[in-house]
Amino acid sequence: MTSTSTYDLVAIGRVGVDLYPLQHGVPLDEVRTFEKFLGGSAANVSVAVVRHGRRVALVSAVADDAFGRFVHRELLQLGVDDAHVQTLSGGPPTPVTFCEIFPPDSFPIWFYRYPTAPDLLITADSIPLQAIRQARVHWSTATGLSQEPSRAAHHAAWEERGRAPLTVLDLDYRAMFWPDRDEARRRVRDALGKVTVAVGNAEECEVATGESDPERAADRLLEAGVELAVVKLGPRGVLAVTPSERVSVGPFPVRVVNGLGAGDAFGGALVHGLLEDWDLERALHFANVAGALVAGRFECSTAMPTTAEVQELLSDVEVADGAF
Q1: Strand-pair category, 228-232 with 197-201
Q2: Are 185 and 203 within 8 A, CB to CB?
Q3: Cβ-contact 87, 64 below 8 angstroms
Q4: Longest C-alpha distance within the chain, in Å?
Q5: 3-state class of 192 per DSSP?
Q6: For residue 318, what are the contacts with CB-CB under 8 A and spacing of at least 6?
Q7: Reported pTM
Q8: Could you report the per-residue pLDDT of 301-315, keeping only the tens digit for each?
């Protein structure tokens, strides 16, 4: 699926296998059966962007094992170019993630990627710098900053981009990947001056900035160098701030089945809106609905909605610039 033409998105980061329980409302030790899906935040965002008709490549790594083969196969079946997903031998296995499902708001998650995972072993000299430089959007996650050599690879990618527009950092904080919050904050702050967009939920923005108030956190992100700060507020909607604009959009109501993956659907839909050059309010409404659709579904990657699915629900949402 490779070509010399420019990608709409080149994402870099976590990929693996999600094993989700088919029994809901019970702890993991009581679950009897699971279903297997492509997983990992960067992979999910990649699939989400493909669903909006975009050309996407993922930069990551898996092990030379059965789950690694599954990842490659699923990426291709879901339309993501896997040419830059390395297969590493002799190292850690392809990671597996388990969760519990207690709707509407409790979804404990366990990452089996200790002490490291293949996607944290990518190196600066192994990533496709030309593709990253030429991509219309480059998406990375804070998890990739938690260990070397992945951290150096991310910085090499940002140096190649030179703060080109739509260089996005997903603040994506998972405490189990870091020795402490201070280390995460330091590494994220080192990165903020090299990207143009930062996206995170309220906790992730607090980790990045030290500010628990969403408005102040967004302002701190702008002061750190980004041009667009997006703070996801869950049931309170979303806030987006630029140097000249401040937009808040309420949530889209949904019966939650599994809250995992909604943020990745939001991110993929936001990328689509930014590529379409929509105004912020329209882009945020679109992304909110995409996230809500996935929250109302069981799986993550294969649950990502198409543009048509989002637009159908958006017909009921009134925005300032009129109908979609």
Answers
A1: parallel
A2: no
A3: yes
A4: 56
A5: helix
A6: none
A7: 0.94
A8: 999 999 999 999 888
